[in-house]
From TrEMBL:
PANTHER family named among the record's database cross-references: L-RHAMNOSE ISOMERASE (PTHR30268)
Keywords: Isomerase, Manganese, Metal-binding
GO molecular function (one): isomerase activity
Pfam families: AP_endonuc_2
Protein name in UniProt: Sugar isomerase
């Protein structure tokens, strides 16, 4: 399904007067208004291929309707999201859930749709059909060299898939860990993991990055071999400059100060980027900003301050990805909400009066410092996002447009009621 630009324009003209009233107030009060808008226009978030179908829990999955049946249809869904928002012009593929057949055709289709391929994800957390060995006791950290070798080769294959599609990063989430005290020698597991990662690192093209995700627990419940940012950072440091630490917001112990982690990784040039999502308990993979939008804002505050301090570009020097999955929402509506929440947090961070904040910090004006950042957080910046969308030809209100254009039913007509996304 290709979105009719005229239909978006006509929906936009219905909402225009109200929008213009709202934006005027912000124009008058934000000194760097134009700069904020152009940064919002530039800011793009990669969509994970696995979030385009309904996810599930370990207890079951309640299928949605009209889900994409193959990579091509996943690209089409990302194009829909991008036409509605002009904020997500890339897809992050997952191997082997997405196995490209004809690379040239796929690249051409993506570029026709105005999309490109973001980081590619490997998978050694499941056994695949017909596999004659098992990752039950781990992959890159496995005590058996042959199994480690299989996991290394898989990651190298993923790099090759990505290279043919124009990706520039391998994203690795290692599920290896242990469930019971005594099961695993931690030092041995770390050393074997490092050795395996070194083999993969050697296969990276010169202009690639190697994103190393960490997670405190799950699927294993006693230890995870890359459990926290310190362990990921240690591996990334030993590997070399292409290796960097990926922060998935849901992968921390409760109460962790994620914004401080982000600030220090950025300081060390070791921040790969993000898997954005939200959670109440642990790795809930809920819609970004649905539970704790203030935390998301505080993270963006550190990002904006840290990237500016380093003279880095916000839009391109960090990997911005969503990692979400659940049972109950329409995946497209859900992703629209995540994109909106991420950009709201970014916009709020962009309007912080940084000079005033530095002044307050240097004079230990604690209440003033809090007021400065909360002033930004409590500003309704939704019209800024709408303005950025309007200027880039997207929808003023993406979710409203999704519903008024009856997009899901159109997809059901094309794909059927019971279509299932590959890999899920
Ligand atoms: C798993 O918990 C990690 O968040 C992964 O990044 C991601 O969910 C997975 O690679 C998708 O399969
Ligand atoms: Zn993740
Ligand atoms: Zn997560
Ligand atoms: Zn996760």
């Amino acid at each position: 399904m290709i979105l009719d630009k005229q239909k978006i324009d006509s929906l936009n003209s219905d909402g225009l007067t109200l929008h213009q009233n709202k934006i005027q107030v912000l124009k008058d009060s934000i000194p760097n208004f134009e700069e904020v808008i152009s940064k919002l226009v530039d800011f793009q978030i990669a969509i994970p291929s696995w979030a385009l179908g309904t996810g599930g829990t370990r207890f079951g999955r309640f299928a949605g309707t009209g889900e994409p049946r193959n990579i091509e249809e996943k690209l089409e869904d990302v194009a829909l999201l991008n036409d509605l928002t002009k904020s997500c012009n890339s897809i992050s593929l997952h191997i082997p859930w997405d196995i490209p057949q004809d690379y040239d055709a796929l690249r051409a289709k993506a570029s026709d749709l105005g999309l490109h391929f973001d980081a590619v994800n490997s998978n050694t957390f499941q056994d695949q059909k017909g596999q004659d060995f098992s990752y039950k006791f781990g992959s890159l950290h496995h005590v058996n060299k042959d199994i480690r070798q299989k996991a290394i080769e898989h990651n190298i294959e993923v790099i090759q898939h990505g290279d043919k599609l124009g990706s520039k990063a391998l994203s690795l989430w290692l599920s290896d860990g242990s469930d019971f005290p005594g099961e695993l020698n931690f030092r041995g597991a770390f050393e074997r993991t490092l050795e395996s990662l070194q083999e993969i690192y050697k296969a990276l093209p010169d202009d690639w990055k190697f994103y190393i995700e960490y997670k405190c627990f799950e699927p294993h419940f006693y230890s995870t071999t890359i459990a926290d940012w310190g362990q990921s950072y240690l591996l990334a440091s030993k590997l070399g400059p292409k290796a960097v630490t990926l922060v998935d917001l849901g992968h921390h112990l409760p109460g962790a100060n994620i914004e401080q982690i982000v600030s220090l990784l950025l300081m060390e040039d070791k921040l790969a980027g993000f898997h954005f999502n939200d959670s109440k308990y642990s790795d809930d993979d809920l819609t970004a900003g649905s539970i704790n939008p203030y935390q998301l804002f505080l993270i963006f505050h550190e990002l904006v301050e840290g990237l500016d301090h380093k003279g880095k570009r916000h839009a391109t020097d960090i990997g911005w990805m969503i990692d979400a999955s659940h049972n109950v929402k329409d995946p497209i509506e859900d992703l629209l909400q995540s994109v909106e929440a991420i950009k709201l947090a970014y916009a709020q961070a962009l309007i912080i009066d940084q000079n005033a904040l530095t002044g307050a910090q240097n004079n230990n004006k604690v209440a003033l410092a809090q007021d400065i950042i909360q002033d930004a957080y409590r500003t309704d910046v939704r019209p800024l996002l709408a303005e950025a969308r309007l200027r880039s030809g997207a929808a003023l209100s993406p979710i409203k447009a999704f519903n008024s254009l009856d997009i899901r039913n159109e997809l059901v007509k094309e794909r059927g009621l019971h279509s299932v996304a590959t890999g899920l």
